[in-house]
Known about the structure:
Elements: H1 3-20, H2 25-32, E1 37-40, H3 45-55, E2 63-66, E3 86-88, H4 96-107, E4 114-116, H5 124-136, E5 142-144, H6 154-161, E6 170-172, H7 180-192, E7 198-200, H8 208-218, E8 227-229, H9 240-249, E9 255-257, H10 265-273
Parallel strand pairs: 1-2, 2-3, 4-5, 5-6, 6-7, 7-8, 8-9
Helix pairs in contact: 4-5, 5-6, 6-7, 7-8, 8-9, 9-10
Amino acid sequence: MAESERLRDRQTAGVLLLPVRDAGEGFAQRATAFFRDLNFSIMNDADLAVSAYCLKRCSGLRTLCFSVPDVFKEETAESSTPHLRTRSLSGAALSRQDVKLLCEALRATCSLEELPVARCCLSVDGCRDFSRILQTSRKLKQLNVSYSCLDKGMPVLCEALCHPDCALEVLELVYCSLSERCWEKLYEVLLCNRSLTHLDLTSNVLRFEELQLLCKALKQPGCPLQSLWLGYCKLTSACCQDLASILTSSKTLRILNLGGNPLDLSGVVVLCEA
């Protein structure tokens, strides 16, 4: 859909959401039938009730964004929008109950393929809930948990990513304060997972030993990764020989993003020669 069409949908939605509930069922169905992308700004319970009422009638909805926390109520069950593919919750302060309700919907009839939950301050329990989804959902393909401190939660997610039924293809972990044990778990994921093609580790401090561990996994014949983002990971030119070995050994890697790292000319030359 063109950007102008997306903007039209969202602007029209903002005008219609308030009156449609009181205008009758027929009007609500007609008014919301053409919506494909919606962005709800919910400030109170009344906004939530109106949005939930309209959401249930947006039969063609594909993308849904919420701009405030505490939006998960039973009235907004994803099962009523079977065509929904993306639900953005980035920036929402998800409570334990919010995550629980979301995951219950994902385990039911929900068809979400992309779930951005960046800046949501996920707890270990929240990561545990998402890990169950990763082990059971064959539809969820993209998960963005960036800007969350995952020192304790990441090992839980990695166990799920190693599960043979995990179908996730894109994992974004920007600025997640990954610790040494997190990198060890990611190494196991790269060895075991057969669906993951894009991994974004931007703005996580990556020490030399941890980089060597990742490179070792990427050089394995069965590793399916096609895109690896390591921007602003404080990598130096001393790392370039190992990075170059990935470029010459990996049969699948097509994109290696190293932007924002203090590489000098000698390191760049090593990479270019590879």
